[in-house]
Design a protein that fits this description.
Two copies of one chain form a homodimer. Chain A has about 300 residues and is an alpha/beta fold. In chain A, about 50% of the residues lie in helices and about 10% in strands. Chain A has three domains: about 40 residues, no CATH class; about 230 residues, P-loop containing nucleotide triphosphate hydrolases (Rossmann fold, 3-Layer(aba) Sandwich); about 25 residues, no CATH class. In chain A, helix 5 links the parallel strand 2 and strand 3.
Amino acid sequence: MEYSAKDLLRLTQHGDRKALARAITVVENELPGYDSLLTALPASHIPVIGFTGPPGAGKSTLISALLRTLSNAGKKIGVIAVDPTSPFNFGSLLGDRLRMAEHFNNPHVFIRSLATRGSLGGLSEKIIEVTDVMRSADFDFIFIETVGVGQSEVEVAGLADTTIVVVVPESGDEVQALKSGIMEIADIFVVNKADREGAETLVNNLKKMMHHPKTEGWTVPVVKTVASQADGVLELIEKIESHRMSAGFNDKKYYLLTEKVYQLIRQSRMKDINREKIRLELKKVVEKKDFNLYLFADQFKK
Amino acid sequence: MEYSAKDLLRLTQHGDRKALARAITVVENELPGYDSLLTALPASHIPVIGFTGPPGAGKSTLISALLRTLSNAGKKIGVIAVDPTSPFNFGSLLGDRLRMAEHFNNPHVFIRSLATRGSLGGLSEKIIEVTDVMRSADFDFIFIETVGVGQSEVEVAGLADTTIVVVVPESGDEVQALKSGIMEIADIFVVNKADREGAETLVNNLKKMMHHPKTEGWTVPVVKTVASQADGVLELIEKIESHRMSAGFNDKKYYLLTEKVYQLIRQSRMKDINREKIRLELKKVVEKKDFNLYLFADQFKK
């Protein structure tokens, strides 16, 4: 049978995971009831924790370790995987998927993977809406895993109350890598695979760069983990909690809401345009002697 | 004195670099004459070569080596640096800047660095327009250097006739890194620092992944370079030329033009919105009991 948007939300709020899955599908695919579902979403204070960092940093393994610890403590966690390389997103090797199986069967854990926009990464078009639907359920935390590259970072930073940047000791490129955007978005740094050579250097570089408070009362901590052995997981959970308690935390709310609204506006305003349409129009005129890209583009600007 | 848009373009076409610099500034800052300059741009067939790849891959060193070889052969090259970590973009250490000095004084080379959008990387808002202005000058090649992360990759792939992805032997993460979007955009792969351990493995992995033709008559080649010694530079130039001669090359033109138009439309449609405006409106209502993000966003969607 079909549920109304309000029914779905009510069931979702009371822990019905089938209803949640259905609500997400409705939103992700703009099925009937899509708008009324979104506009009926209650205010939620469930913290959203974003995990980003380069592929191979071990984000999925770290999240697995956190899920194990938190669910053992009776916490409920919703996970959104948008990293195409993530085993949570079925985007990885069979071995990884098997390692994940424990969580797919864990009643305290709800995992939803989202297709990325195009084949080039970046977050799903509907990540904002899906996250807010997840936040209408009875979770203690929402985790979002995204491959931490460029624009995706901006987007996850615009979604997550606490952004955790996971890095690993690499061959001398750390400092440059940090220049390219990751630094600004990190609320917590995790140096994973901290048993690797070069870990101490990386930790010290990060601490040097992070010594001044990012927001009021919050200096970005650097946590060492070996996720495969769950080392450092408790300290990380502690840092997540203390970030939420920090003085500047509430200011971030406005930044996050502003980003969300900006993205929603952009999606809405670009709804009627698609590249195929542009392409077909182009084909008609591009060979003309006086073709000018900017005159051509004007017709679509409205 | 002030030049008209048409004057600036005429001077630019005839090699006046001051006029080019001025034209770029006009476009970048939307100064008077901005529109008429863009709509007066002639069709150009100057190839745009995009260089992307992770920070620390040695893109700048590779470009330096190419500039040396090409300018010695009498070629004129325009360089646009949008990588915030690039020495071309003054974003790097003094040592790097000094290494670049030879090119800043090279009459065959024109270098323009563009601010990135925000502190989080991504290409400059005006990269499309600036590139097209550069293409109205008397260059043989336009080089664009961008840090190859996420969305930026998509954008540079949407700008460049030939996209060169520069990678280096890393600690076992190559294959995953490639999953996250770089593969699709590469027309040519460069394995730089090919004297490093692991280079052969990386080259072989890439070749395996690239064995099927990407576009008609073009299988993505993998070129080994040691940019610091200019090793492999001639082979790379050869591959750039043969990519331009390949059967599928012309098809790409439509893809590039489509992407440009899409970006121009988006910029134009979002012009009247800025985050500060949203933020101020938010502050007024967000604490209200019945606040709903999606109802709030509707007022801006128009």
